[in-house]
Design goal:
Keywords: Membrane, Transmembrane, Transmembrane helix, Transport. By secondary structure, the protein is mostly helical. It has two domains: 178 residues, Growth Hormone, Chain: A (Up-down Bundle); 214 residues, MFS general substrate transporter like domains (Growth Hormone, Chain: A). The longest helix is centred in the first third of the chain and has 33 residues. The chain is globular, with a radius of gyration of 22 Å. The protein starts with a helix and ends with a helix.
Length: 444
């Protein structure tokens, strides 16, 4: 059962990454077919993070009311509908609407799937299982780049977008066989079913041990209902956490990562690579580096700590973006390899630091009673800034040039390095309970 659930979570992560990344390969063909402006191009590409803002809010509201499993089932349906509608789009506005649907599915599943897994997984495996979801996002991006590279000679952009329905249908069938979260069942008073689920996921536990786990869940929920109001976020204890987690996500987004993920082939063209096929080949390299360094991050974050990685990540991305900006001032073929090295270095530093750490900080710093609401607030901030960066990128490039745009990203990363040095906490090796006590003492 545990292996089955990890595989299912991996598919939701893959869908997330695939539907974010596939537009990069399809976009050069779409702009030719529909003859769209820079503003329309930006809005079409940014419709996914715009939809994800709504999706994160929907998941925060309905995950407790309907259950994690039903929310994920509905996400699977939206993933399938959005992919098919994208492939069948007859104009840019139909495509925008289809990608809004995909965005809602991404925003909702990005909250519901890790929550579902964390509540199902045994404590000793929880970190690895939730990290597997994050890893598979990068795998999904890579798969979308490889598919785009394979289909590009045929100009089959509709197939690039539409094939996302295949893993969506697999997720749809898979979630039907998955159990509901034992925590949600316990909150609803269905303690017998909760014990059955825990016993299925952890068959080595005795009946007494499963009953004790369910009793702890029920007790925790009874405490949370008295301390989980929105006013708690204004307290001296929680307010600094809200500011830090939201700032971490905003700085992550203005580093330019999603502009690179969505517009990678276009960026390769500005760097001096000629031909869509060559640009896509270089883009595949970006996807490979992203996956490999995300695997490294899963080990580095507990070995070296959060704070050093966060600081080093901002410094490294700032230097890498400076290299890219300088090479783009010339935009000649002989400088293209230098720009590509800078881009690979940027992805490497991002993958081991700026990518996973805001999500990790968010899950560690908020008190248990406020964690779901805190995650929703930070997620909405993340997706909102994601939308603005992706929407404005082609417009800023059009009016100011690629070199100036990457110089702006470099400046934000420099600000991020200073902010991380000043405010980033170290939570390595500290239990969640001790982190909560530390914030309470600091507020006092």
């Amino acid at each position: 059962m545990l292996i089955y659930l990890v595989a299912l979570a991996a598919l939701f992560g893959l869908l997330f990454g695939f539907d974010e990344g596939v537009i990069a390969g399809a976009l050069p063909h779409i702009t030719q077919v529909f003859d769209i402006s820079a503003g329309e191009e930006g809005f079409m590409t940014a419709s996914v993070p715009l939809g994800a803002v709504a999706g994160a809010i929907v998941a925060a509201v309905f995950a407790d009311r309907l259950g994690r499993r039903l929310v994920l089932f509905l996400c699977s349906v939206l993933f399938a509908i959005g992919a098919i509608a994208s492939g069948l789009s007859h104009n840019e506005w139909m495509l925008i609407f289809a990608r809004l649907i995909l965005g809602i599915a991404i925003g909702a599943s990005a909250m519901a799937a890790p929550m579902f897994l964390a509540e199902l997984a045994p404590a000793r495996h929880r970190g690895a299982i939730v990290s597997a979801f994050q890893l598979m996002i990068t795998v999904g991006i890579l798969v979308s780049y490889l598919l785009s590279y394979a289909l590009d000679p045929l100009g089959a952009w509709r197939w690039m977008l539409g094939l996302g329905a295949v893993p969506a249908v697999i997720c749809l069938l898979g979630i039907l066989r998955a159990p509901e979260s034992p925590r949600w069942l316990a909150m609803r008073g269905r303690t017998g079913e909760a014990q059955e689920v825990i016993a299925a996921v952890q068959p080595h536990l005795t009946d007494e041990e499963t009953r004790r786990i369910v009793d702890d869940i029920v007790h925790s929920h009874s405490v949370e209902t008295h301390t989980s109001g929105w006013r708690a976020f204004l307290s001296d204890e929680v307010r600094p956490i809200v500011f830090f987690t939201i700032a971490a996500f905003l700085l992550q987004q203005v580093s330019g990562i999603n502009a690179i993920i969505y517009y990678a082939p276009t960026i390769m063209g500005h760097a001096g690579f000629d031909g869509i096929t060559t640009q896509l080949a270089a883009t595949v390299g970006v996807g490979v580096v992203n996956v490999l360094l995300t695997i490294v991050a899963m080990y580095a974050v507990d070995k070296f700590g959060r704070r050093p990685l966060f600081i080093i990540g901002f410094i490294g991305t700032a230097i890498s973006l400076a290299v890219i900006a300088v090479t783009m001032m010339e935009s000649t073929p002989h400088l293209a390899p230098v720009a590509l090295v800078g881009l690979f270095a940027y992805i490497a530093f991002f993958a081991i630091s700026l990518g996973p750490l805001p999500w990790l900080y968010m899950s560690e710093l908020f008190p248990l009673a406020l964690r779901s609401k805190g995650m929703a607030m930070a997620s909405v901030a993340n997706w909102s800034c994601n939308f603005l960066v992706v929407f404005l990128f082609p417009v800023v490039v059009l009016y100011f040039g690629a070199a100036a745009t990457f110089a702006i990203f470099c400046a934000f990363c420099t600000i991020g390095a200073i902010y991380a040095w000043r405010y980033a906490p170290e939570t390595k090796g500290v239990t969640l309970e001790d982190i909560e006590k530390q914030h309470a003492m600091a507020a006092a």
